[in-house]
Specification:
Largest sheet of chain A: 7 strands, mixed
Radius of gyration of chain B: 21 Å
Shape of chain B: globular
Helix content of chain A: 40-55%
Number of helices of chain B: 14
Structural class of chain A: alpha/beta
Distance between the termini of chain B: 13 Å
CATH class of chain B: Mainly Alpha
Number of helices of chain A: 17
Largest sheet of chain B: 2 strands, antiparallel
Order of helices and strands of chain A: HHHEHEHHEEHEHHEHEHEHEHHHEHEEEH
CATH topology of the largest domain in chain A: Rossmann fold
Shape of chain A: globular
Number of domains of chain B: 1
Strand content of chain A: 5-15%
CATH architecture of chain B: Orthogonal Bundle
Strand content of chain B: under 5%
Oligomer: heterodimer
Largest interface: A-B, 67 and 72 residues
Number of strands of chain A: 13
């Protein structure tokens, strides 16, 4: 690499008088030069890149998640000296929820031997899926990304625990059904689906259409384009006209807060308004009291009364190693970041046990994720007893299809209001299998799984 | 001094009309092309995959827009959408005819973009300037709407995304995850050089002169016998062709997959800024603009922490991002104040200075 930079630079000097495009070559040399020290990662450490977004329209959701992810792993570094005695090298790369920058980040981190990548954007996840197997870097897209990637046989390198969007939608519908006194009571009802008009929001639509047919309810679609996230009034006028019996929200970033605000303004009853797991505390706090009664799915705790979180406070926040506002530690999206990092840490820990190595590679972590079995005992050991349900992944199932629960905004915080709601496996499973098969078929030459299956440790 | 014309005699009309009449320019260009190819052998994958490939693709798109806005004087805000047409057309072509060579697919997809470009170029016969920009804005919104709403375009994919399948050239994968950055770079480089050559010949020939005549004063151009309808629509067609090919390259040789949102209005502005900063009516300017707008933020992202870290100022990724925005914005304003005609004009001035150095008059 040194040679190459030298050669380009020498070239620039001799042809200074020549044509202009050379300028770009010179720039290229400049780009390359600072890479040299960065690639020299220490031998006895594990490199964990974090693709985050603290800028742009989605920063409102991105910041607490970034803080949560970073702080949990920093806490492991500070308290235990990393995982299995190996320090983790954490590095954030700012994507701004932009696919272009996300790919640039991925290219930048790839040379530093990352053991895992968390794109935190469905748009960035999609182009990375085919690359994962080639670059030997597993993708952890936690409850987002391609639903079909839950199928480990087709997608050995992609993991999307603990539930897919299809699971989520079936859970919302079965919760609404239970509220109404049975799924058959949904017949003739009208359901409004307000969603971010992108891959993320459109993902549940096939299942929604099928469920509408099966249970005899009518669906009204209210798509919100990414550029109109904060300007939803026209769609809410339609909602007012159509008067749906229930509203289901599938939004992200500034869209969630704006949707709740608009619902309050149009006077839509909050107790008929449900959402997938992405709205955070800040989204609802902006509307405050009128948002009371709004319910979202969730699979982990939304408060800070756990040992793991107090350890974060002690080892990270109090030592001023965190960028988070101390009040935000333990909020919903912060905890989601913590959960994501818990999965990373467990994947690495498992990989160390499986491979017997201290410094694991992306290939080892793939095996580690695949055999992950976080049971109640393990959760207790991590100081997360009751924080979330146990989760177990297998070679065939990279998702877990965990049951989630409904939580309600009481004006100040989220309160759990339901028992575990399992996904409608009979509805989701066939769709998932056919989607995975379809993906492999459409991408001619999609590699057959050649990775051996490990026994759970 | 550096550009000595003395002793270079032209003995034929062909030599006199050459695009690069000076020997120094020809040598320089040859060296650049050789260096660019040599980079494939020596560059690391980040340089190729994250810097050079997108830089070349954006340069191609900027050339496309420059043909329309810089050479013909028709302002367009539909670049992103025309790139999208190229990308989706290429996706449909390569999935419908998997046996067809992918390079041919990419080149052919430009024709679909050209056809759409002609349709949206029709209003240009009646309206000019900002009003035309609004009309092309309609293309941007309408086409983007099509990318979301017409599931046929994405082969009824549930997530609404297009993915680049594995495709080979001479048995070597060039599209898909297994394609190495080196081969991708070589393909992109060759296509960009070839298309730049075509563009260069177009703008230096009869067609280009007609475009420029229309740009400078369309009534006068009509009076000297240039047919406005054909000339303007040809400009739209050729411009959209280049943008379409750039869009197909973007998805197939760089991203490897894309959602509709890649081709949004921001993409159009991104390319328009490249053209304005680089220099309207200049092919070299398109490359320079792409370098400034695309590569500079990447360089800043590396230079800023490298400068600040020795002082013990650990900066977070988000701060770097904010700094990037501020510095790029400031530099754009700086360049526009210093040289409103773009980087190409700066380069021209520099060349003139080198020519008379060390005895300026």
């Amino acid at each position: 690499m040194k040679n190459q930079t030298g050669a380009t630079e020498a070239g620039t000097i001799t042809e200074e008088k020549a044509m202009s495009t050379l300028k770009s070559l010179a720039l290229a040399a400049v780009v390359c030069a600072p890479l040299l020290p960065a690639t020299a990662t220490a031998q006895d450490s594990i490199y964990v890149p974090l693709l985050t977004y603290r800028t742009g329209a989605f920063a409102g959701s991105g910041i607490p998640i970034a803080d949560g992810m970073r702080d949990y792993l920093t806490m492991l570094n500070e308290r235990d000296g990393g995982i299995g005695g190996v320090k983790l090298i954490l590095e954030e790369c700012e994507t701004g929820y932009d696919t272009k920058k996300g790919i640039e980040c991925y290219e930048a981190i790839k040379s530093k031997n990352p053991v895992i990548v968390n794109p935190w954007s469905t748009g960035i996840t999609l182009p990375l899926i085919p690359r994962a197997a080639v670059d030997k870097v597993p993708i952890l897209s936690m409850a987002y990304g391609l639903s079909a990637s839950a199928d480990g046989t087709t997608f050995p390198w992609v993991f999307n625990p603990p539930a897919t969007y299809w699971d989520g939608l079936s859970q919302v519908i079965s919760y609404i059904g239970a509220q109404e006194g049975g799924l058959d009571k949904l017949k003739g009802k009208k359901l409004g689906y307000i969603f971010l008009d992108a891959g993320f929001g459109r993902e549940p639509i096939p299942l929604l259409e099928q469920l509408a047919k099966d249970y005899g309810f009518e669906v009204k679609f209210y798509p919100i384009a990414a550029q109109d996230m904060q300007n939803q009034s026209s769609q809410w006028l339609n909602v007012r006209r159509d008067k749906p019996d229930f509203m289901v929200l599938w939004g992200w970033g500034a869209m969630n807060g704006a949707a709740v605000k608009e619902a309050a303004r149009t006077g839509y009853p909050m107790n008929k308004f449900f959402s997938v797991w992405w709205p955070g505390d800040d989204d609802l706090r902006a509307t405050g009291e009128p948002a009371k009664g709004f319910r979202t799915l969730n699979w982990h705790s939304a408060d800070g009364n756990y040992k793991a979180l107090s350890e974060i406070k002690k080892h990270v926040v109090d030592k001023k190693l965190s960028q988070a506002n101390p009040d935000k530690v333990g909020e919903l999206l912060y905890n989601r970041g913590v959960y994501n990092s818990m999965l990373i840490a467990e994947g690495i820990r498992n990989a160390q046990m499986l491979s017997g190595k201290k410094v694991v590679t992306g290939e080892d972590v793939r095996r580690g994720l695949e055999t992950m079995n976080v049971d109640a005992e393990r959760l207790k050991a991590m100081g997360m007893e009751g924080f979330a349900q146990p989760i177990k992944l297998t070679c065939a199932d990279h998702n877990g299809h965990l049951a989630t629960f409904m939580q309600e905004w009481d004006g100040k915080a989220f309160v759990k209001v339901s028992d575990a709601i399992p996904p409608m496996v009979d509805k989701v499973k066939p769709l998932l299998d056919s989607a995975a098969k379809d993906y492999a078929e459409k991408n001619a030459g999609w590699p057959k799984r050649s990775e051996a299956c490990d026994k759970a440790s | 001094m550096f550009y000595r014309e003395a002793g270079q005699f032209k003995t034929s009309y062909t030599a006199d009309m050459a695009i690069f009449p000076l020997r120094e320019d020809r040598i320089g260009l040859a060296v650049i092309i050789v260096c660019a190819y040599a980079l494939a052998l020596t560059g690391n994958s980040f340089l190729l995959q994250a810097v050079m490939i997108p830089f070349l693709i954006f340069s191609l798109a900027a050339i496309g827009l420059n043909l329309l806005t810089g050479y013909t004087g028709l302002l367009s805000l539909g670049t992103g959408a025309f790139m999208g047409v190229g990308a989706y057309a290429c996706y449909k072509l390569t999935t419908l005819f998997p046996g067809l060579n992918i390079v041919l697919c990419i080149l052919a997809s430009g024709f679909f973009a050209a056809a759409i470009g002609v349709v949206f170029g029709l209003p240009s016969l009646r309206i000019k300037g900002f009003y035309l920009a609004v009309a092309t804005l309609a293309a941007q919104f309408f086409l983007q709407w099509c990318f979301i709403r017409v599931p046929w375009l994405v082969n009824y994919n549930v997530s609404g995304a297009i993915e680049a399948p594995l495709r080979t050239l001479f048995g070597i994968p060039i599209v898909g995850a297994t394609a190495t950055p080196e081969t991708r770079y070589l393909v992109v480089l060759t296509m960009v050089i070839g298309l730049t050559w075509v563009a260069s010949n177009l703008v230096h020939g009869r067609v280009g002169r007609a475009w420029m005549a229309v740009r400078d004063m369309d009534i006068a151009a009509e009076l000297i016998g240039i047919r406005l309808l054909r000339t303007k629509l040809l400009a739209f067609a050729v411009s959209s062709y280049f943008c379409g090919v750039a869009g197909a390259l973007l998805v197939f040789l760089w991203y490897g997959g894309a959602e509709y949102d890649v081709f949004n209005i921001n993409q159009s502005f991104f390319i328009l800024f490249m053209v304005i900063i680089g220099g309207l009516g200049s092919l070299i300017g398109s490359f320079m603009g792409a370098a400034l707008i695309f590569i500079m933020p990447i360089v800043l992202g590396m230079v800023v922490p490298a400068v600040l870290n020795p002082f013990g100022l650990g900066v977070s990724a988000a701060t770097i991002e904010h700094l990037r925005f501020m510095i790029v914005g400031a530099l754009i304003i700086f360049f526009l104040i210093v040289e409103p005609h773009g980087l190409a004009r700066l380069w021209q001035i520099g060349k003139q200075k080198l020519r008379v150095w060390p005895f300026p008059y």
